[in-house]
Amino acid sequence: MKNLFTKILSIIVSLLMAIIFVLFFVLGFNELKKDEEVGAEVTNESQEFVSKFSSTSKDTVEDIETPKVLVQEVSSSDIERQIDYESVEVDKFLYNQLDEDEKYIYKAFEKNKEEMKTGTATVELGDYFNDILKRNDGDTEILRKVYQSAVEAYTYDNPDVFYLDPNKMYLTVGTKTNQTTGEKNYEVYVDIGEGSSYLIDEFSSREQVNNALAQVEEMKNQLVSKRTGNTYQDIKMVHDYLVDTIEYDQTLSKENIYNIYGALINKVCVCEGYARSFKYILEAMNIPCVIVVGTGTNSKGQTERHAWNYVQCDGKWYAVDVTWDDPVVRNGGQVRNEDKVKYFMKSSQEFNAAHSPSNQFTTGGKSFKYPDV
Asked: Residue 349 sits in which domain range?
């Protein structure tokens, strides 16, 4: 009997000890979890936007390189042909800052927009630049600068031509020499030159381009259908949609990360994709919006090339950085609502503490003017 009592007592003690051990374990685990959550909050706060930057990366904004030029002798009478682009009407923010020669190339792109979806169509400029080239003995330096300004304005005014890669386009100069006098005349056109296509690497045919355009247009129309007519609320709606649906590509390796297809369809992009999409959708709502490039400096003092927007609301211009309103969160933390509007509808005094706009989209390019914010 005594042995039975001892065994029962031993079992009870063992159970009590097991219960105590379990309680200690559960309490300890909960405290550890709380510490991790607090740590995550601290990490999120202390690393705000840091993950978007690296000291070596220079690829968050694409460069448009000085165009490659081919000069070749021609024998046809086409050299005297004149191409008329005067009937092309354009009223765009950057276009309106171009001179007449630059506007001519811009309008040539606009006129040939449909054919350029093939990636191989030739954009004829005829003998428009004949006098410039003759005055400079065929030197193409001035022509290259004119072209650079035109193509920058065209691609930044029109986010929907995301399928074009200006760096694959050639300026081809055809020369015809008078065998008696030695006088040279020139015609110019834009084509594939020594390449096979001037579409970006992600597209290889007009069919693929049209399919991609249909997708982004459908997404645009869905958002436009939600507009309220209140300009501020509509700007906020588009801003919030982009913040909530897009993931910032920290690897800089995914496809279409610089354009509206990557942002609106793939839902992954870098700052230029955010900025182009913001402009693309708002202008479909008749809300003026421009893309701004420059540098951004985060709270860690790290500086990198960056892109954002200026948008007009009730007659005034404001700065918006959709990318920085979409911070990367670590350790499973949550983004606070106030973090999503830190760079929304700000004056230059507030905004430029961390942003330095540049009037040049690319090194050596034309200096454009931005609206005053």
From this structure: 204-358
Q: Check: CB of residue 249 under 8 Å from CB of residue 270.
A: yes
Residue 143 to residue 249: CA distance in whole angstroms? 36
CA 320 remoteness from chain centre:
14
Counting runs of H as helices and runs of E as strands, what totals does the chain give? 9, 10
Domain count across the chain: 2
Identity of residue 291: I
d(CA 243, CA 235) in angstroms, rounded, equals: 12
Interatomic CA distance for residues 191 and 172, integer angstroms: 7
3-state helix, strand, coil in the chain (%, to 5): 45, 15, 40
Judge whether 50 lies within some domain. Answer: no
**Using one digit for the tens of pLDDT, what is the confidence trace for 5-44?**
566 656 665 666 666 655 554 444 444 343 333 333 333 4
Q: Which two tokens stand for residue 188?
A: 């110019």
Whole-number pLDDT of residue 10: 66
Distance from C-alpha of 57 to C-alpha of 270, rounded to nearest angstrom = 12
